[in-house]
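From the pipeline queue, job 12 of 40. The input is one protein chain; the requested action is below.

Action: predict structure.
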Amino acid sequence: MLRFFLASLLMTGLLASCTPRATTTANVTAAPLLIKASETPVRGGTLTIQGRFLGGPSTARVLIGADEDGAGAFVIPASAVQLWTDTEIVVQVPEGVPAGGSWLFVEVGGRLSTGLRVSVR
């Protein structure tokens, strides 16, 4: 019985050492994921973004007006943020945001989220 217990204990330790671990980059353990954005945002109106692992206003930023790779984006200033949780962001869309179709991203700790197509009016 003791041999079985010791063998089980050894096997548990061996398996635990082989378990994959989450890597952390600037306190981010998972890539941010955008799920949906509110209907066509209007300059001066509010934009609600829903997702997962969205960080917070001190570690992340909202990018709008980008191409599909996230380049050329307008960074929404922190002063425009009305609410920011790990699953939802509400911002006022600044007047300087380019009108028309583009991509929306959230960058958390240097990691770019999945993108969403948006069209600003």
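Job complete. Confidence is low (pLDDT under 50) at residues 18-25.
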